[in-house]
Design brief:
Elements lengths: L2 H21 L4 H8 L3 H8 L7 H11 L24 E3 L6 E5 L9 E7 L15 E8 L2 E5 L2 E5 L4 E5 L4 E4 L6 E8 L4
Antiparallel strand pairs: 1-2, 2-3, 3-9, 4-7, 4-9, 5-6, 5-8
Amino acid sequence: MLKDDEDMLLTGIGSKIRDLRKERKLTLQDLADAIGISVSMISQVERGLAHPSIATLWKIASAFGVSVVYFFAEPEKPKAIVVRAHEQKALKIPNPGATYHLLSPDLNRKIEFLKIMLQPGQIDEGELVSHDGEECGYVVSGTLTVKVAEDRYTLHPGDSIYFDSCIPHRLLNFGTNMCLSIWAMTPPTF
C-alpha cells in the first residue's frame, strides 16, 4: 500500500469513528473508558495520526455495535444528486454579458451540465475557444448563434447543436432578447 493510500485509509477510519462517537453523543473520555484506551490515542486515531491495532479497532467496533469491516467499507454513493435552483454555482468568466451556472453538482464528474445566459449584443467574434471533448447545446429562449470554425449556426427555441469541442467555437447573441441555453460537455472544461 502506498503512503498516500494508507493516510487516506487512516483518515477514513478515524472520521468514521468520530462520526459514530458524535452520533451516539459520546465524548472522547466516554469512549476511552468504554474500551480501555487513552483519550489521546482515540483522538490521534480520529484525526488519522495514529494506526489503531486490530485489537483496538475490534474494541471500538464492539463498543459501537458494528463489525470491523464497517471501518473499511466504501461509503454508498447516492443513486442521484439533485442540484436545486438556489444551489447552482455561478462560474466566473470575464464577459459581464454572459452568465454560466453549473447544473451538475460539481466539476468532478464525467460530464459538465451548464445553463448559459447571453445578454443581447454579445456579438464579439474575437478569439474562438477549443478544448478536448464534445458539446451539445439546446436553446430554451432567445436566439443563439454558434460559430464553429468559419461556419455560423443560428438556433431558435427548441433547436439543438452538437460539435467536437476541438474545433474552435464561440457563442454569440445578435438578437434583441436574452438567450437562455442548456449545455452538456464532456469532459468538464471549467
